[in-house]
Design brief:
Radius of gyration: 20 Å
Structural class: mainly alpha
Order of helices and strands: HHHHHEEHHHHHHHHHHEE
Largest sheet: 2 strands, antiparallel
Helix content: 55-70%
Strand content: under 5%
Number of helices: 15
Shape: globular
Length: about 375
């Protein structure tokens, strides 16, 4: 067979794009990026463009997907304007991956990410220990030394651990046993004892509890109750995050204590809100000089606050609504699939980590439009079909 005559399947291109984007983005979050000879950040920028072109081509060439674009046209216009004004490609790539994801197996994506992020965790940690790349420990509450293990921040290291645990939970959907307990316990240990990340540790504990509930309790009513609870947890997190972003004050004891517990996340979000406000299509923070508490760039870890400050309140509001509807409609239609399962696992993460709204971390986001839509069928292999 002539290899030149072999047709390249759109699904293969989709998986290739996802792998390239996940790896290149992950490496920008390690101190390998300090080595200019590796060209990590320039390569990431090129890969971002290549992925956008390939995904757009997949969408244009698929007649079924083109029809759906009619309903998404307003979102695409708003998203284009947000990308232009904010300079952030995060939501644009998320939407491109989501629209082009017909037929994509979420479990396969999960397996790919376990390999990618576990490998980068191991490579980066070993390189830092061997002195190949620098690692900059920081002091936390009580003088505890938080080790980033060669990543840009201890919270970045812990977010990689969380995504591996989340991907593992999806691969092991409804199959919880002692192996799962070991993996989550090890992840908890890494986040709690090395990175000293309380929030990531809590997120892993949440993944453990949800995995146990869906595996060990067979009652559909309990599963429905879980979806309802987590859907409204998402709503409460969103409202509470935006309230704190706008009204945080150090004169409030409970706010100050919560801010300390969250490693200063509330104060940072409030600083950017008070100084730059919210805009309809976002704001490009890379074009200004920032000097605040040792930070020289836009740093807002709360995903709800990050997206509205960076991408603007129009697309942010649409995203909040779509995410919420995806969980609610999954519950209503009984679609307790891997797609919906992945979305609910990342709900508590969103309160403390922007990674919850990045498709290369929260890969279940590729199914958010399918889940939020009305005309959905459910198959026994846990794959959604439009």
């Amino acid at each position: 067979m002539n290899i030149l005559n072999k047709k390249i399947e759109p699904l293969s291109l989709f998986y290739l794009c996802f792998v390239m984007y996940a790896i290149s983005n992950a490496l920008t979050l390690t101190n390998f990026r300090n080595n200019e000879s590796l060209f990590i950040y320039p390569i990431y920028l090129y890969i971002r463009v290549i992925c956008a072109i390939i995904l757009a081509t997949i969408i244009i060439l698929d007649k079924r997907i083109r029809v759906k674009l009619i309903f998404l046209f307003p979102l695409i216009i708003f998203l284009g304007m947000s990308t232009y004004f904010s300079g952030s490609w995060n939501l644009a790539l998320l939407v491109l991956f989501a629209i082009a994801s017909d037929g994509v197996d979420v479990k396969k994506i999960a397996k790919i990410l376990i390999i990618i992020y576990s490998s980068i965790l191991l490579l980066t940690s070993l390189s830092a220990r061997l002195g190949i790349i620098p690692s900059y420990p920081i002091k936390g509450d009580g003088g505890l030394v938080r080790d980033p293990m060669g990543f840009t921040h201890p919270n970045t290291f812990s977010s990689f651990v969380v995504v591996v645990c989340c991907a593992f939970a999806i691969v092991r959907f409804k199959k919880f046993n002692l192996m799962d307990l070991f993996v989550y316990s090890f992840g908890f240990f890494l986040c709690w004892s090395i990175a000293y990340s309380r929030t990531s540790s809590i997120c892993i504990a949440f993944i453990l509890v949800v995995s146990m509930v869906f595996s060990l309790i067979k009652s559909k009513n309990i599963h429905k109750a879980m979806y309802t609870l987590i859907a409204f947890l998402f709503l409460i997190e969103c409202i509470f995050s935006l309230y704190l972003m706008m009204h945080y004050t150090s004169s409030s004891p409970w706010m100050t204590n919560l801010n300390r517990l969250l490693s200063g996340r509330l104060e940072l979000a409030n600083y950017f809100y008070l100084n730059f406000g919210t805009n309809p299509f976002g704001f490009d923070y890379s074009k200004i000089q920032i000097f605040y508490n040792g930070y020289t760039s836009f740093v807002v870890d709360n995903a709800f606050c990050h997206i509205i400050l960076e991408s603007g309140y129009i697309v942010a509001t649409i995203f909040y609504v779509v995410y919420f509807l995806a969980i609610i409609r999954a519950r209503k239609n009984g679609l307790y699939s891997l797609n919906a399962y992945g979305l609910i696992l990342y709900v508590p993460v969103a309160f403390c980590e922007m990674s919850a709204f990045l498709v290369c971390f929260n890969f279940a986001l590729i199914s958010v439009f399918k889940l939020a839509g009305r005309n959905i069928q459910y198959s026994d292999d846990h794959v959604l079909k439009a």
